[in-house]
Amino acid sequence: MCPPGNCAPRAKAGGAWDDIGVERASHGQGLPDAAAGAGWLPAAVIEHEAPGGRHFDLLLAVREPAGPDDRACATWRCRADPSELPAGSRCASERIDAHRAAYLALEGPRTLTGDRGSVRPIAVGRWRPGADGAIEVEWAGARGTERMTLRFAAGETELRRTDR
């Protein structure tokens, strides 16, 4: 479940989804272009079982989504689950095409069209810009709310957890 006031419209259950993203990442690895002073915005992690192997997609909404088809999510492909990174650790990541807001509200596994594999939700939460180019993320889960600070280093291909 999304944090109050930060939910995207719910995706319909069942069926195959198409077109995972067409908007090209407009800049490098770094922090998404969220509106200054936007406050908390939706975030999610989805596991993607793809023909090339398993990875995790970190989705950060850059504005309040206008609907489930709005490509409002800056997205990174990560080798490890970013919602489970231990403090002080890092994982390889790559900025990829923007994803639809529907993935923020994914409620169960989905098969993608075009032999692109399947996705399943891992974590939902919210994020906001932090100090010195970091982002603050809160993940809502069975263990309660987990707050962490993440950094994307411009020109690097990694995500680092820098809190604690």
Provide an overview of this structure.
With 164 residues, this protein is an all-beta fold. Strands 1-2-3-4-9-8-7-6 form an eight-stranded antiparallel beta barrel. It is built from no helices and nine strands. It is globular, with a radius of gyration of 15 Å. The chain has one domain. The protein has strands at residues 41-50, 53-61, 73-78, 90-99, 110-111, 118-129, 134-141, 144-152, 158-161. Helix content is 0%, strand content 43%.
Main features:
globular
| Strand order across the largest sheet | 1-2-3-4-9-8-7-6
Structural class, please? mainly beta
Unreliable parts: 1-29
Number of domains: 1
Outline the biggest β-sheet.
8 strands, antiparallel, barrel
Mean pLDDT: 77
Report the helical percentage. under 10%
Radius of gyration: 15 Å
Number of strand elements: 9
Percent of residues in beta strands:
35-45%
Q: Output the number of helix runs.
A: 0
Distance between the termini: 26 Å
**H/E element sequence:** EEEEEEEEE
- Global geometry: globular
Question: Can you give me a brief rundown of this structure?
Answer:
With 164 residues, the chain is an all-beta fold. The chain has one domain. 0% of the residues lie in helices and 43% in strands.
